[in-house]
Amino acid sequence: MALIQIADLTKIYGEGAAATPALAGVSCAVERGEYVAVMGPSGSGKSTFLHILGLLDRPTSGSYVLDGASVAELDDDVLARLRNERIGFIFQQFNLLPRATVRENVQLPLLYSNVPEREWPAIIERAVARVGLMQRMEHTRAQLSGGEQQRVAIARALARDPQIIFADEPTGNLDSASGRQVMELLEQLHADGHTIMLITHEQATAEHAQRILRLHDGHLESDTRVAQRRTAAQFTR
Ligand SMILES: Nc1ncnc2c1ncn2[C@@H]1O[C@H](COP(=O)(O)OP(=O)(O)O)[C@@H](O)[C@H]1O
Ligand SMILES: [Mg+2]
Questions:
Q1: How open is the CA angle 197-195-148, to the nearest 5 degrees?
Q2: Confidence at residue 159, expressed as pLDDT on a 0 to 100 scale
Q3: What is the mean pLDDT of the segment spanning 34-55?
Q4: What integer pLDDT is reported at residue 227 of this predicted model?
Q5: How many angstroms separate the alpha carbon of residue 20 from the centre of ligand 2?
Q6: Angle at the Cα of 206 from the Cα atoms of 183 and 45, rounded to 5 degrees
Q7: Which residue's CA is the closest to the ligand 1 atom numbered 18?
Q8: Mean pLDDT throughout 156-184?
Q9: Cα→Cα distances 63→33, 70, 74, Å
């Protein structure tokens, strides 16, 4: 069974005259270990789509089966636990805590977990080393460049070793060199077995993925394979 299986997913924001349909019946499946890019014009529903798949929001209708579990039947507590254990989210705006250190930011998902506290330092160090920022461990947001902030956000997403990583235009606020570093990290995480779904509006960035989903006005307009530039020996988790 696919890792992600959605059928006729809809999302309508607001009610009555203010009702805005953001997703108008999207169906697709994503297998374990896939690297999928999501493209489409501004307002086409990309962020809404990723937020629902990432359990940050619920659909108005339609079904979502995540790793065999029907998400609609899970209560908010179970959903929060699933999100904490299985999903890492990376945003365009980084979303770091302003006055907290790198260590404290990466620790955040552990605070909401049942991982014993004595294990936290090693987990945090592994995640921060993964993104190459060990020498910045006690720095706060103001002391970090944009690219470094996004790498901290990736370390935070990795703290629980998530099965799936969702990234919503993660290079949108970065200069091209920092953006390349972030894309390289995502490729390494994919090679490590994480399933990745990435929103981007740049074709060249999307071609890092194996597959491109295009949204238009809340509909899935196309679903295409990217010609592979390389073969990576991969295992999936
Ligand atoms: N919280 C919200 N409340 C009301 N409308 C929203 C909300 N979020 C998104 N929308 C609307 O839903 C549509 C899809 O938005 P979004 O998913 O953010 O698209 P994209 O990420 O592709 O730019 C847009 O028309 C947007 O204005
Ligand atoms: Mg968006």
A1: 65
A2: 97
A3: 98
A4: 83
A5: 15
A6: 110
A7: 47
A8: 97
A9: 22, 7, 12
CATH code, 45: 3.40.50.300
- Centre of ligand 1 to C-alpha 57, Å, is 12
Cα torsion angle, 178, 179, 185, 188, sign: negative
Give the contacts of 124 (CB within 8 A, at least 6 positions apart).
Answer: 103, 106, 107, 110, 155, 159
Atom of ligand 1 nearest to the CA of 11: 12
What ligand is nearest to the CA atom of residue 42?
1
d(CA 62, CA 21) in angstroms, rounded, equals: 14
For residue 152, what pLDDT is reported? Answer: 98
Ligand 1 touching residue 21 (CB < 6 A): no
* E strand map for 31-124: 35-39, 61-66, 69-70, 87-90
pLDDT-derived band at 228 (thresholds 50, 70, 90) equals confident
The residues with which 215 forms a beta bridge, in sequence order, are 220
Atom 27 of ligand 1, residue of closest alpha carbon: 43
Contact 49, 215 (CB under 8 A): yes
- Predicted TM-score (pTM) above 0.90: yes
Q: Is 187 exposed, middle or buried, given 0-12, 13-18 or 19+ CB atoms closer than 10 A?
A: middle
Side-chain-facing half-sphere of 225: CA atoms under 13 Å: 3
Q: Is residue 63 part of a domain?
A: yes
Domain containing 43 equals 4-225
Q: Please give the tally of structural domains in the chain.
A: 1
Name the closest ligand to CA 51.
Answer: 1
**What are the two backbone dihedrals, phi and then psi, of residue 65, each rounded to the nearest 5 degrees?**
-110, 115
User: Would you say the CB of residue 14 lies under 6 angstroms from ligand 1?
Assistant: yes
Angle at 53 between CA 49 and CA 57, to 5 degrees: 80
